[in-house]
Amino acid sequence: MSAAAVGLGKMVDNKQIIFKGYIEQRAPEETDMEVKVGNKMKLEAPKGSGAILVKNLYLSCDPYMRARMRDFHGSYFPPFVPHSVVEGFGVSKIIDSDNPNFKGGEFVAGFTGWEEYTLIYKTEQLRKVEPDHRIPLSYHIGLLGMPGFTAYAGFYEVCSPKKNEYVFVSAASGAVGQLVGQLAKLHGCYVVGSAGSSAKVGLLKKELGFDDAFNYKEEGDLDAALKRYFPEGIDIYFENVGGAMLEAVLQNMRVNGRIAVCGMVSQHSMSDPDGVRNLFNLVPKRIRMQGFLQSDFLHLYPRFLEEVGSLYKQGKIKYVEDRNEGLQTGPTAFAGLFSGKNTGKQVICVAHE
Amino acid sequence: MSAAAVGLGKMVDNKQIIFKGYIEQRAPEETDMEVKVGNKMKLEAPKGSGAILVKNLYLSCDPYMRARMRDFHGSYFPPFVPHSVVEGFGVSKIIDSDNPNFKGGEFVAGFTGWEEYTLIYKTEQLRKVEPDHRIPLSYHIGLLGMPGFTAYAGFYEVCSPKKNEYVFVSAASGAVGQLVGQLAKLHGCYVVGSAGSSAKVGLLKKELGFDDAFNYKEEGDLDAALKRYFPEGIDIYFENVGGAMLEAVLQNMRVNGRIAVCGMVSQHSMSDPDGVRNLFNLVPKRIRMQGFLQSDFLHLYPRFLEEVGSLYKQGKIKYVEDRNEGLQTGPTAFAGLFSGKNTGKQVICVAHE
Question: Fewer Cβ close by (within 10 Å): the C or N end of chain A?
């Protein structure tokens, strides 16, 4: 790829998605971000900066980003800066590099900006991606990115799964849940997922190999629903939603059950979320509830890439994406996560290479 | 001890405490049990029964017994039988034995009846107690009994304690909490306890060696109180109460904190207990919440007896009892557990040998 082909050194209009300002007690809305045009940028990595200039191809919409929209500095991620470009995981192509570890034409996955081109200074957080025609590039922010690794680390390292155990996954068609369920099936477990539409339920049962699935919105009594799907009770709950579902699950856990807590997306936005009123179940059932972050398990990332990449190439697992075309769809796509509009991993396609 | 001395074969009036009937959505009251007199009993272990006849010396009032006052058969203990004698842990002296493993004059600790004399058929659950003038017999239902073992197994096996960690114990002057705090101190931790009266707080600080303690009833804002006592946050919470205190603790846990859940006595009686609204803290703080029952760790009981008995005899730990004299005080003493009337382990002294 020649410098001329990528327009190296040229001034471009770099379209951006801007974070407008902090929100507290509600779910994110489309209007919390805005599309900004007219930002001029020179396509080069400045000499002496150590930075790389990338063209962003795919951007990831992830629920954890909600936490960065709050003016709170005690979290594991700093908050977004109002009136600045949104930051998130992406897959990008290097246009120019002032860093000896990277060169033009290579692909990287990691934190980038919600914009067409980004100068990345913190290159140590990037992972190089070797193009492989058998694996879509966008999977490096999904199946083989943070969500997939969350499923992998959470299921194997936190849930302590055993063959023939009963596994329940909420938000099961989402970026994380769909892989948890498939890994659990491959592990010899019985797996039921819940989701918020009949289309998603169909996907879980027909495409993703779940033993069963249900639409939680159609169940007036979640406790009764779980008793129907798990007459023997639940050994493992991969918790993605919190609130009423967690309460119903606690009623239906088996002795020595494990609950891996990673999401609670339904509770992210609320200042007074639903209380869980039946935690006393933890005692007689000796339940272990474990919160976790995938970032604590990064030493397992190479093994994860090898194993899950190989399972995918062998056709043993699938991965469903919900792709929006164009950077300008970002605000809508992101807000949609919080009302369950996405089916599968929500990706924004900024450019096709 | 001669047969004549214990009145062997004689008919006696065996005073009993009777469980009147199931209760559901409230705390136990004194009137849920009644004293029954006039029950004639022959002081012998019937030939061929394999049973032993014991004279009960000390009976244990334990919060878990609340669960047996409910008409629910799915728990780890069967419910009490209405109009029958209350069952609980006790220290007893053998009067007569039809079992080759036991003989008259020996002392046993284990399940017995809330009555003066009990015929025990399930002798396999009993533990023989060797009288030792350095250890009060009643401690075999407290410090060296189920509550003490709950503290021991919970602290060492569930809390995964490390030196210099910050430990918080609720219901800290109770049968379990007082030992948890002292074991934590011996382990090199910084320990703060909460209790429900200034007398109990004084006991924790002056007698039991806690680094600090507070009266939760005097704290309008539990979150603020915990921030004052744990400016660096809490690594380990030994959970005995549930509800609002757990919620405040979750706000103040440190990363990789552990919560051992054993009691939740404040929630036992309520059909609609307070909800815990901030479980999302589990995720960024990677908190492990583990429910446990001491009965899962019984293989450690011999080591516990050796270690804790030895620490006590060396004067390195203390144990505070609240003793009521006379079987007839049982209903009041038991009900008092649920309003915090007891200071220390609640024991009923039925007879002094």
Answer: C
